[in-house]
# Entry
Amino acid sequence: MKVTVTVMLKDGVLDPQGKAIGHALAGLGFAGIGEVRAGKVIELDLAETDPTRARAAAETMARKLLANTVIERFDIAVGGA
Amino acid sequence: MRVGIVVFPGINRERDMAIALERAAGHAPRMIWHRETDLAGLDLVVIPGGFSFGDYLRCGAMAAQSPVMTAVRAHATRGGYVLGVCNGFQILTEAGMLPGALLRNAGLRFLSRDCHLRVERADTVFTRHYQQGEVFRAPMAHGDGNYFADEATLDRLEGEGLVAFRYATPAGELTPEANPNGSARAIAGLYSPNLRVLGLMPHPENLVDPLLGGEDGKPLFASLAEAFAA
# Structure
């Protein structure tokens, strides 16, 4: 089953990449842009078919490798075939 | 001095490090491939700079999970000495052996230039050939060297005297201009609580020969050679 892990820098951790994207969008003439934050999306195709266990497995993977919890937070979405 | 240099795929400063260590110690260090796990008999394990595993996911994230790092952690737990430079520092933080993390440089650019480091303490195995407060020049070459830790961790590091080096002006002042990657409290290098693990972003190993423009990095290697001259 498909599990999507979204990794973002924690609030309060400076995201210069997000800032640069915001500046570039403003430069293109897009108005009203507040804070821009950039992150990563990691899609996992797991053999596990139980959503609860799939989420638990992805959470362990996120804590161990996919995210650095000193600076990043993560969200897990379970779904799809 | 019995030294091993850990080599991961994508590491590229291991030979510079080997030259600096060999000149100081008089013999060549052992090169350790990342799948090896036997570090027996080594005084010092060095994790050099480069781009291990292509910096995939996060700088040092993949290398921190490799078999040799379990052995490096055990070596440190036994009281062994560890030096991590640049990517090596990133790997040590990813492996949880030093606190905090190294973020993208505040200015977003990869910085390849010289910087000046202020020696915060000269009573460790790594720095006894420097003076406290002395400033030395070191090349830097990184895109992710912006040291980050939460305020409580930063306060603890300062309180326990674990800051090894800070980015400073040649006169030793801390200014925003002298801290090119935006590191918290201008931290360029850190010790573990037992002062046996040192991680730093700049490259003292790249300034050990007048032909390369100076010998500012030499005292670090001389300190180590003297400490382990047995």
